[in-house]
Amino acid sequence: MQVFGGLPSPYVRKVALVLEEKGLPWNLKLLSPGSEDAEFRLASPFGKIPAFIDDDYRLADSTAIVTYIEAQYPEKPMLPADPRMRGRAMWFDEFTDTIFCASGLKIMFNRVVAPKFLKIPGNEDIALEGERELPRSLDYVESVVPESGWLLGEDFTLADISVASMFRTLAYVGITPSQPKTVAWYARVCERPAWQVVAEMEAYRPAKAG
Fold first, then answer.
1. CATH number for the domain including 10?
2. Considering 50, 77, 104, which residue would you say is the last residue of a domain?
């Protein structure tokens, strides 16, 4: 399986972590959003990362990719079988993609991706807007993380992967968890072998994309 993108992206990292948690073989092709790489564009016609290939099957968008992986490779599930718990898992994934990331990536893009990787000026006003928005997401996470275990109970799921992946991206702009339950939960996530494998890849192969 081939994943296209850069691991500093919370969306690319999400897919990488799901694959690693499931013990599936995969490779990363490092490239930026909008790349004209022909193989990438076949999987992602609008140039969005991540993109994904499994044999002759091509797909873009992290949630779509994870949905496919879960159905095609059901061993070591990252989505609960219980309908209510599965709904909650998808809520946390959607919350992260459309609310948490929407704020955090304003900071990441304008202070890291634009000036360092794309070599264009960032917009500090938008970065500051993201800073003002971010506390509502951080407070929400603190209100729902458990004292022990994972967001949906005993099982580590996509819910934990999605939220934790955005925290890892925020570290690039010096923002780390500070509220006590969130700190403890995030530390548990970072101790997982799959997380450590992906983190090592990320440290070894600094990405061109965010």
1. 3.40.30.10
2. 77
The pair of structure tokens assigned to 109 is: 């893009």
Lateral strand order in the sheet of 51-54: 27-29, 2-4, 51-54, 57-60
Q: CB neighbours of 124 closer than 8 A, spacing ≥ 6?
A: 110, 111
CA atoms within 13 A on the CB side of 45: 0
Task: Compute how many other C-beta atoms are within 10 angstroms of the C-beta atom of residue 106.
Answer: 22
pLDDT tens digit sequence for 111-146: 998 998 888 999 999 999 999 999 999 999 999 999
Nearest residue to 176 (alpha-carbon basis) of 203, 138, 122: 138
Give the span between the Cα atoms of 9 and 160, in whole angstroms. 16
DSSP 8-state assignment for residue 93: H
Amino acid in the structure at residue 154: E
Number of structural domains (the chain) is 2
Tokens standing for 69?
Answer: 């992986």
Which residues make beta-bridge pairs with 157? none
| pLDDT tens, residue by residue, 32-66 | 899 999 999 999 999 999 999 999 999 999 999 99
* 98 located within any domain: yes
CA pair distance 140, 96, nearest whole angstrom: 11
Longest dimension (CA), the chain: 47
